[in-house]
Amino acid sequence: MGDDAMMPRGNYSVMRSMQRDSSLAKRPLRAGTARRVIAFARPYRRELSLFLFMIVFDALIGVATPVLAGRVINEITSRGEVRVVVWIAVIIAGLAVVDAGLSLAQRWYSARIGEGLIFDMRTSVFDHIQRMPLAFFTRTQTGALVSRLNGDVLGAQQAFTSTLSGVVSNVFGLVFTAAVMFTLSWQITALALTLLPVFVLPAKRIGSTLQVITREAYGLNASMNTTMTERFNVSGALLVKLFGKHSDESSSFRARAARVRDIGVRSAMYGRTLFAALGLVASLAQALVYGLGGYYALTGQLSTGTVVTLALLLSRLYGPLMALSNVRVDVMSALVSFDRVFEVLDLAPLIDDAPDAKPLEVTPDEASVEFDDVWFSYPTASEVSLASLEDVAVLDQTPSQDVLRGVSFTAQAGQMVALVGPSGAGKTTISQLLPRIYDVRSGSVRIGGHDVRSVTQQSLRDMIGVVSQDAHLFHDTIAANLRYARPQATDAELWQALLAANIADKIAELPDQLDTVVGDRGYRLSGGEKQRIAIARLLLKAPPIVILDEATAHLDSESERAVQLALAVALHGRTSLVIAHRLSTIRAADQVLVIDEGRIVESGTHDELLRAGGLYAELYRTQFAPGRQEQVDDVEAPLRDAPV
């Protein structure tokens, strides 16, 4: 939060208020939003009370100082006592010290409340998003989620700092100032206020223009941020280079950046015009006060000090009036930010622990896997997403088709079950139902006789290890990526896992070894090296159940053989589901399930299915001509010869 978060008065506050999008004031809020905002701030009610009290007291000081200054002028012009002047000066100095102390205290409470709210909201939203199903992430825009955690959370925080303090400060400052001014001279006060429309009407037009160009600037900045995010990651940068689009990308970015520059110049000039207009009206009003007030003072109707007090107070009148004229937009802007945060928090996770869920406790010898008449279709958009996160007006309500249709099979503890079949047949979907990435529509999935929906998700996922075809590594060190599986692992245990995964020698050759940063998504490593580090991470976790989803896809023969050697160790003694397009990798499977259009159409061992002459035999013949059998035997040897 910037230092300007607590500047409710003055020209800057007016400028910021005028830039708010006025269309937000017309946006309907969901019922109960204001009540939920109050409830969210309840932990800070003591700090908020003190904060608001200090704002009101500060407003009193702001009015008291000009009144005391007028008293000083009266004492001087009437040749009063020096002692009185000195005491008034001491009081003014004391109020200045108190005001400075209040300013620091307000800033501390503002930071305490604002940063506390940011912390509460960010952690709540982050935790909630982490519990959302995978379908949520496949549908929503990453930038939109980041915006909720940054822009909207900051906007909501401002409701309790700049917006709330600005409204309270301006209201009380205006009431105190106007009350004192009318008490001193209602004629001069009323006449000075007649100049306000001269400023307000043009200012509203300037404000509307500022809102339009500010919206365009936000849109262009968002577009540039998206472009940078896409072009600066490794895949995007590689695509630009391969197609030779460097000049086109630079020209496109330059055009948008130039538009932002031009908008910035226009915004600055409109803002300066707004400041100049407010200053001009205030100066004209002060001239009026001095002229009319001087006349009243010379005719004996007002004292000289009163005229000075009125002039000083007048400078505190126009800013709050202008800020309050746009207060509805300020308040609605903050409430809309809250509403957008609540919108995410109100989207219930599709998968959650049952109220009576218990930890899954099975030994490796009991870790059987059973699918019993499983039917599954992917959730609809309305079940897992929000229109605002997909940047669409209305979510697609079309029901999805069944992906799995009555799938039943059993993998006994320690067995390897292979899933093969055409692309889109449902193999990966089967593997995702086991760790409850998704839940079945009907039927059941059981581990050791326990329905996975009846156990806690944490204990379930502790039992399962997964290696996919695109092993993801965080932009961190090799050690940190490995310890993601077991944070307390020692360096010796990390090296042991790397050795078992057939990658220790490669890591040892690196200058920083375990402290080597792998880069974005592990791009500093080859595909085979990433896969073996993922297998080492799996070995470090040591789960009784393993899922391999195309773990050797997209690898050359040498890398595939190295990965297969690592997998031979990883699968030993564990129940495993292996998904493979390369049928050479699953000849050693205890059971091969052939999936087609969401059903198991064949099952048996490799040799049995070849003799049956069905879909499996057709897939095998398509992949491997007789002349390639030697290569096939060489690649599959590690799994076939693995110790049992």
How would you characterize the overall build of this protein?
It is a single chain. The strands form 2 sheets. A 6-stranded mixed sheet has the order 6-7-8-3-9-10, with helices on both faces. It has a 4-stranded antiparallel sheet with strand order 2-1-4-5, with helices on one face. It folds into 2 domains: 8-345, ABC transporter type 1, transmembrane domain (ABC transporter transmembrane region fold), CATH 1.20.1560; 413-437 and 455-640, 3-Layer(aba) Sandwich (Rossmann fold), CATH 3.40.50.300. Helix content is 61%, strand content 9%. The chain is an alpha/beta fold and 644 residues long. The chain has helices spanning 11-19, 33-40, 45-77, 82-130, 134-139, 142-193, 196-232, 234-242, 246-298, 304-314, 318-325, 327-345, 381-384, 387-390, 427-433, 457-462, 478-483, 491-500, 504-509, 527-541, 557-571, 606-612, 615-623, 629-640; strands at residues 369-377, 402-411, 416-420, 442-447, 450-451, 464-468, 545-549, 575-579, 591-596, 599-604. It starts with 10 loop residues before the first helix and ends with a helix. The radius of gyration is 35 Å and the shape is elongated. It is built from 24 helices and 10 strands.
Strand order of the largest sheet: 6-7-8-3-9-10
Largest β-sheet summary = 6 strands, mixed
Tally of extended strands? 10
Number of domains: 2
